[in-house]
Amino acid sequence: MSQKPDSNFQVEQAAATDDSIQQVHAQLRSQKPEKKDGYSLLPLALLGIMCTAVFFGSIYMAHNAVRFDPLVVNEHAKREKPGKSTGPAVTRAQMGKPIYLNTCAVCHTPAGTGVPGQFPPLAGSEWVKGNEERIIRIVQHGLTGPITVAGHEFNNTMTPVGATLKDEQVANVLSYIRSAWDNNAPEVQPETVAKVRGEIADRKTPWTSEELLKVGGN
Amino acid sequence: MKNGLILFLGVFATMVLSWAGVVLAANKQIGTLPQFKDPVDESLNPQPYSGVANQGRAVYQDLGCATCHTQQIRYGDDGADIKRGWGERASYVRDYLRDETTHIGQSRLGPDLRNLAKRLPSGAEAEYLYKLLYAPDSKLGGEPLARGMPAYRFLFEERAITGNQPSYKAIKLPSSHAAPAGFEIVPTPRAEALVAYLRSLADTYDYPTERGLNAPAEVPKEGGKEAPKEGGKEAPKGGGH
Amino acid sequence: MNSTEQNARAEQREIDASVKWPVLVFLGSGLLWLLLGGVFQLAATIQLHTPTFLADCAWFTHGRLAPAAQNALVYGWGMNAAFAFGLWLMARLSATTLRHGGWLFVAAKFWNLGITLGIGGILAGYSTSFELLEMPRYVGLLLLVAYAIIGVWMVTTFSIRNTENVYASQWYLFGAAFWFPWLYSIAQMMLIRTPVRGVLQAVVNAWYLQGLYGLWFASIALAAIYYFLPKLLGKPIHNYYLAPLAFWWFVVATALAGGSRLIGAPVPVWIPTFGIVASMMLALPLIIFCLNFLGTLAGRYGAVGGSLSLRFMVLSIAGFLLSSALGLLLSLRGFAAIAQFTLLAGLRDWLMFYACFSTAVFGAAYFFLPRVTGKQWRSTALIQAHFGATALGIVLMIVCLGAAGWQQGHLLNDPAVKFAEITRGLAGWHTFTSAVLGVLLIGHVAFLINFIWIACPINSQGTAAAQIAPPPALGLAAKEGHA
């Protein structure tokens, strides 16, 4: 049908008028291609693809939208909503870690090893793992004089840090040192801290290890 | 579709659906997200930038740094961002509340900068950044400071040294890039602001709510992916938080 | 038959004459932006492997030059070219002349003024830093006003149409004309005028980008393909009854797929997930487009060799399919984890904008400019150069950006590889890209020269009058493969 193609490209020749294009296609809109066996496979195949797409799309949404939670950015996060607990699953020890690193690690080092001869270690320390009322006192008023920790002698003064920390913060940092570095002691509760602080409120001077050993059983 | 009206309605509905489904819904969810109040020390996080750092953010924007640098840390499965040391945790939505204009970026021709402040040499952060901006091709241990990054000399001023000694603001440069004798290189206020901004790029706070909600599911997904690693237990780098 | 043919032709000549000057102004200014933007883009790519290039001038630092180049190409060339083609085609298919075309000059002037101010603003340091919305805030209103005129013209031309039937190209043109101002104004409001908070800005930006590339540029390219295939082959679109389904599915899925650009981003995870699902839904319209386009071309590839516009349309179809396929791939989380911030993501957008849209407009321009001006193209050598450069450039760019992006992605995901190594590894690819951009630029210069010859009255003495044979009517019978 076509005229000779203009291989010089100086003018593109059209092969159909605009209105005929529109007319013919309008007719084609309602016409499906005839097939010998009476039905056309194509629409069925496309319908199948549509349904598959919608189906798998919904499953994917269900799995990866994580309840449409605005705070979740991880598609692999747990899909069940966390229970209606008082808050997120954070332990006291986790909350205490930054306090430790900011306040205590200066001397006791981030790894809890202390400095031999100067600052006692907290990792493996029986004082840390033992009665909590002792370490609450140490934190509150400091410690001075000789003390034996894990078989080593220390004779130094620890500055009191209690003035800047609230009950809950003290509980958190003590819980941290009691559970870090293979220490396996139970956490400290803010109520205990409050009670102890109430008992020792009048004291002004740092503790000594003899006084502390008298506190509570061993 | 003979009817132009149907076409119009359909086209209009597409736009409404698109805007409502993506933008409006997102706006409802995170458009008014507040800062998070720490349960223990009652600080509001993320803490806003200092004034100078905020100006620096505007310099970052004006120089188009987001063309080559991203500021988003992806989760462990989605790439090696955390393994590369670009962050200790993935970025959360709330981290970006402090940015008036968020530059999360879309191209990594340069490294991710979200936690740049944590990777700077401690004690010499500003010095390092000034050197990086002025002479990124200067060598540090045989390698250029930032291969491929253009120099931003127009952020600095070369001026004659007045008096007996260089200004305290003059930047220290290696001999290959040092100013000629009698001259010093001094950062302009824009450079100072930019460096202040870069030094405050650190998402330090680990939001308990986000951490809990984003904790990965323990069971591997049915696609056969390997069980994702726990997100919250990386060993701390050094003593800082 | 003869007299109706004559009447039809006269009407068409009227239509073409009524759009002549607006089309020439839009296309001409578009071509100038294409060259300027191309030069900027070339310079910016050179800066990637030679960072000292132009680094001392604050105006041309990479962070300003690269966005300026992108905006010049997209808004300067892309939009102007789209206006030129869209106005012509809408008038043609509505079988009505373009009324009061003088207003379109005002629009063109405002548009180009706005872009000039915008590019200048970016280079001077007032960028907003949102991808493809970097132009400073004072430009937005100017562009919207200019667009309002153009958009209203396109929509009104459609609404006063003389035809009973609405063809596929008209759906796409109408849709595009309607969607763009909404996309643009909402993005301007939510990002620049009254910015939303935090990372929501990134969501709006991604939504805008998806709309710009899919609902505007892709739609206009599809309008061109749907028109030119039957027009030049004399054969109706194969399986045309599926075209409405493809239209609606394509536009709805594209409009909702913005989130797929945000995989792994610090946004609520349902946004990228939803975007991925919408993106995957695009597979169906893609299949239908393949049936429509490749089915129409089947057995007719010989004709493609003889028709310039068809050659460009084939490139455009290839570009569309490749870009969509890459977009689908990039929506897979596993692939995105590798390819997310690399040159591959840039390749997807470049393919849609250049390999699909720009080639479609080139092909259309080679068709309508002789009809609109009444003159022939003067130099076939330049035409061959343009086509050759474009085709070669596209193939090379796919190879280059594809390989570079893939390598970049793998290296980025290997924590043992230092970042400097990645930059060193990519330098060669950036050099290659600069060369390819140079090739493309040569093609564009060739086109501009031909354009000037055909369009400018001063030089038209040398350009022969176009001999346009009246085409036959399209026959239904022709669909079964008659010659």
Estimate the helix proportion of chain A, in percent.
40-55%
Q: Largest sheet of chain C at a glance?
A: none
Q: List how many beta strands of chain C DSSP finds.
A: 0
Q: Structural class of chain A, please? A: mainly alpha
Mean pLDDT of chain A: 83
Oligomer: heterotrimer
How big a fraction of the residues of chain A is strand? Answer: 5-15%
Ordered list of secondary-structure elements with their pairings:
The complex is a heterotrimer of chains A (218), B (241) and C (483).
Chain A: H1 18-29, H2 41-64, H3 92-108, H4 126-129, H5 132-141, E1 143-149, E2 152-158, H6 167-179, H7 190-199, H8 209-213
Antiparallel strand pairs in A: 1-2
Helix pairs in contact in A: 3-6, 5-7, 6-7
Chain B: H1 4-30, E1 36-37, E2 44-45, H2 51-62, H3 125-134, E3 139-140, E4 143-144, E5 156-160, E6 183-187, H4 189-199, H5 208-214
Antiparallel strand pairs in B: 1-2, 3-4, 5-6
Helix pairs in contact in B: 2-4, 3-4
Chain C: H1 2-49, H2 62-94, H3 102-124, H4 137-159, H5 168-193, H6 200-233, H7 243-256, H8 270-281, H9 283-297, H10 301-306, H11 308-330, H12 333-339, H13 343-373, H14 380-412, H15 419-455
Helix pairs in contact in C: 1-2, 1-3, 1-13, 1-15, 2-3, 2-4, 2-5, 2-13, 3-4, 4-5, 5-6, 6-7, 6-11, 6-13, 7-8, 7-9, 9-11, 11-13, 13-14, 14-15
Give a brief description:
Chain A has 218 residues and is mainly alpha-helical. Chain A has 8 helices and 2 strands.
Task: Walk me through the structure.
The complex is a heterotrimer of chains A (218), B (241) and C (483). Chain A has 218 residues and is mainly alpha-helical. Chain A has helices at residues 18-29, 41-64, 92-108, 126-129, 132-141, 167-179, 190-199, 209-213; strands at 143-149, 152-158. Helix content of chain A is 44%, strand content 6%. By secondary structure, chain B is of the alpha+beta class. Chain B contains 5 helices and 6 strands, in the order H-E-E-H-H-E-E-E-E-H-H. Chain B has a two-stranded antiparallel ribbon. A two-stranded antiparallel ribbon of chain B has the order 3-4. Chain B has a two-stranded antiparallel ribbon with strand order 5-6. Helices cover 76% and strands 0% of the residues of chain C. Chains in contact: A-B, A-C, B-C. At the B-C interface, helix 1 and strand 4 of B face helix 1, helix 2, helix 5, helix 6 and helix 7 of C.
